[in-house]
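Hi R.,

Here are the chain sequences for the assembly we discussed:
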Amino acid sequence: MSGAPLLAVTDLTVDYHTRAGEVRAVDGVSFTVETGQALGLVGESGCGKSSLALALLRLLPESAQIRQGQVLLEGVDLLALSANDMRAYRWNRIAMVFQSAMNALDPVYRVGDQIIEALEQHPSAVSQDPAERVRELYDLVNLNHNSIDRYPHEYSGGMKQRAIIAMALACRPDLIIADEPTTALDVIVQDRILRELGNIRRELNMSMLYVSHDMAVIAEVSDVVAVMYAGKIVEYGDAAAVFKRPIHPYTRALMSSFPSVTGEKHDLATLSGEPPNPLDLPSGCHFHPRCPFATDVCKEQAPPTVRRGTQWADCWNPPGDEADG
Amino acid sequence: MAAYLLKRTVQILLTLFAFICIVFFLVNAQPGDISNVYALNPELPPDAKQRMQEQFGLNQPLWQQFLVYVKNVLTGSFGLSFSHYPRSVADVIGERLPRTVALFFTATVFSFYMGFVLGKIIAWKRGGWTEYATTLGGVTLYTVFTPWFALMMIWLFAFKAGWFPIGKFLDPVLWRDAPLNANTLFNRMMLTVFVVSVIVFAIFLVTTRRRVAGARYIQIGSLAAAAAVTVGIWWSTDVGHLAWDLIEHMILPVLTLTIISFAGTMLLTRNSMLETMREDFVLAARAKGLPEKAVRDRHVARNALLPVVTSLVFSLAFAVDGSVIIESVFSWPGMGQTLVSAALAEDLPLAVGAFVFVGIFVLLAHLAVDVLYVYLDPRIRY
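And here is the predicted structure of the full complex:
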């Protein structure tokens, strides 16, 4: 992977206005996604990962405001575009597979027509006849052609998810953001769809941003992992490295709260405490009240960045190399 | 669908029968009968009252009268009107019902359209003074005391400004040597409107379903052409000025009804829109890069329409009892007025018959909306 990255996010900060005051949902986040790369963004609910995903497409609700930062897609700052120019980027360049795909299809229109709607909005994206393209997409996601003219309520959960993926692929986007793409599905369907999505992505050399709370999903699909806590990325690195030797105590806690598929039996650790109140974030390292290794310095000052190769984490007390593994 | 319609028809007949029973006994529960009108007239012989009761069968026990009535209804007869004797109830109602339907159907269509469009706009642009003013104005008009407001409309637009006639159905001077009866003309006008709307609706439906290129222009064009052709043909006949006279008499009551009732649809649409806007498919529509107007109209408003149509059924039922007030104020000789005068004159067959026809009308309206719903919401299958 060489040259400029496909997507470069720098210092992105998102605030929400609430009755109780300003809430910082995303706090100075920076990362890049290369062409063909899959970045997994993982964190507990409320950590700001969905806000981050929506901010990239500028689809945040009105109560939210992007305070600062840049979202560069091949050098174009999406945050500086006019509303009209931005619309040309949506779906055409960056498409989205939605959280709770169950409701992402409009119940009163045929599924095929909803995909055609996206194609007709971006006529330059695909030169084919839209109806022909829909059939091609249905083949790609293993859906039967006879369901093209059916309504969403006639689809099963898995079929809807496939249709949503087909819709996301419609305009051949450079990047697909998948926000909790399979959360509402049962594990078996979830696994199959993730695998197929991974295959399609590699085949088409597309970039992908997976957003999930589920470490197992992220482990399965990503090349690079970013762990988010209280609006910040606290650990970042190659998936293999992060899963093998996590630096941040939060990453370790997340990992040990999921069963290992291949590994030996061990008691699942639960992460004690609750996600911090975004209105009243803990001082110093935001994770310190829940951290088993917290010391006095963690309560007072923001943690430094610890690097190990391309992997990095923000922590005062990273484990020694021999202490884990 | 056929099985559903059959089931619904049976249901409607059963409901109607129960309705007839209740209405019959309720109306008969009021004291006295038509012969009371003559009771205090000293010029009538004392046995006239009794003879009248015998003639109308009012001296028989109530259950016997009821059986006779049910038997008549089953054979398709609603009896004779006492106060319009010897005209039959069906004849009187056949003359009055179309007038009420025309008035209220037109007003309902206008207020529904107006309420839906305004509700759509204020839901989309929240927080501005437009929303505030529209909501405040709409609610004020919605809750205003109807008879007072109707009188004010007459006073302002008919009496002061002189733009419209003051009440009534027609101008008798114009009709003195008219070539045909006002009812015949009115029914012909309604038939024209019905046929033209069906044609226009069919064009709308086909162009939308078939995704015809430039559907919008074809639709607007066909609407304009239909209107022009209809007006042109009517104008060329020798009764054009008479038809216009009837329309002129309708404008003010329709306007009044529209103004006092649009806010219900508007607020419901607004709430329904706000609820729909939170759905994921709306976010998806935006993410697809659709312009805001397409997101609003094609996705949000289209889904928000469903509960609003349900409320339309209830407003149709409301229209019927609203007709009593509006028709009295505007001296519009429709069902509402017929009902009131029949009840006051103790014209029992006409009062019962009027109620029964109103009931049939509401039941049919319910059925029509149920069928319409199938086309609006693909999730509904009967």
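Residues 31-63 of chain B form one domain. The longest helix of chain B spans residues 240-277.

Let me know if anything looks off.

Best,
T.
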